[in-house]
Amino acid sequence: MDFQLSEEHKMLRQMVRDFAENELAEKAGERDEEEHFDMEVFHKMAELGLTGIPWPEEYGGAGFDYLSYVIAVEELSRVDSSVGVTLSAHTSLAGWPIYKFGTEEQKQKYLRALAEGRSMGAYCLTEPGSGSDAAGMKTVAKRDGDDYILNGSKIFITNGGLADIYVVFAATNQELKHKGQTAFIVTSDMLGFKVGKKEKKLGIRSSATTEIIFEDCRVPAENVLGKEGEGFKVAMMTLDGGRNGIAAQAVGIADGALTHATAYAKERVQFGKPIAAQQGIAFKLADMATKVEAARLLTYQAAVLEDKKLPYGKASAMAKLFAGDIAMEVTTDAVQVFGGYGYTREYPVERFMRDAKITQIYEGTNEIQRLVISNYLLKD
Ligand code: CAA
């Protein structure tokens, strides 16, 4: 067991940290206020090779590992977690299923565009009536000659409206429930593809979250991803890795809040000395740092398991569960360290606290993570 990052991982971390601090930090609050994702940020990430970190060079990727990818999501989220989740959904939820289940043609056409950052990706599973019960989807896909016709609507789609490549799940045979669902690659220029309502959110406000509507949307049969009837498996396996991207986001949010709180505690003087020198605050910082480190280790472990091609579904669910919960605790404590100032929008910690909440909810609520973990335990 090696707890040291390699030189390559350290260099990547420094490169993404420099990018986040130099290019993202200044306007993160402004983007949050305006609820606006700046596509220029995505283009800059593409220039740095961040849009295709774990994909092989033959598909336009950087050819790095999953550990590199989670380090990048963590570093972006330390500064602006809206950017962190944009990259996470793009990579884990859109790129991964195409890399894993796509044909060579699909990979050359779609994965390459995603990896090179010419396209942005998104994943359409959740519907108004099916969130945790993902198998209960109502979106249907009917075969019509060489095409499928999709009808239905998906909600809470990260990167909705900005993305042009969507991995979409629909029922090709509703009677068969999860065994009758199929994954498709849908592009935003296909007839009948529509972007619906944009959500106004508590946190990650500059990341786009929209409804996506399919109205007689005509998708060529060659865009079926994997086999017909195996869509639920594609969706679940995608989430196994996606959840570790969210764990990385949560670690980054928590570490960002801890960094701000530590700096502030050293500067803020009360009762004649910095508040960091008062045990009530010093111990709080110690607890926060310990939680961040434990969450980071779980997250890196899940990534390394995937890199070693070992089972990682349970580890990823544990990482997401723990990191999401501690992100909420640590950011709440960071606001507490700042006192009244922390409650204002003059300081970034309130944004971190709002951003942390979603990590306990999306890509499977933390209650669903407990279900997934307990299923593994009971099966073992
Ligand atoms: N890998 C491979 N196969 C899997 C699997 C996995 N991780 N999990 C389940 N399966 C298979 C099972 O083996 C089973 O296969 P068989 O029928 O062949 O035996 C089949 O799928 C059904 O499994 P379950 O009976 O366990 O399925 P279920 O209906 O009880 O659901 C669940 C299980 C874990 C609750 C699942 O529905 C789930 O993960 N729900 C949460 C969904 C979720 O995370 N949604 C978030 C969407 S993404 C998002 O948030 C938006 C965004 O843009 C970020």
UniProtKB/TrEMBL annotation:
Isomerase is among the record's keywords: no
Listed GO MF terms: acyl-CoA dehydrogenase activity; flavin adenine dinucleotide binding
Classification via CDD domains: SCAD_SBCAD
Cofactor(s) this protein cannot do without: FAD
The reaction(s) this protein catalyses: a 2,3-saturated acyl-CoA + A = a 2,3-dehydroacyl-CoA + AH2
Keyword list, A-Z: FAD, Flavoprotein, Oxidoreductase
Tree of life domain: Bacteria
Keyword Manganese among UniProt keywords: no
Pfam families: Acyl-CoA_dh_1 (PF00441), Acyl-CoA_dh_M (PF02770), Acyl-CoA_dh_N (PF02771)
Record-stated family: Belongs to the acyl-CoA dehydrogenase family.
Protein name: Acyl-CoA dehydrogenase
Organism: Aneurinibacillus soli
Gene coding for it: acdA_2
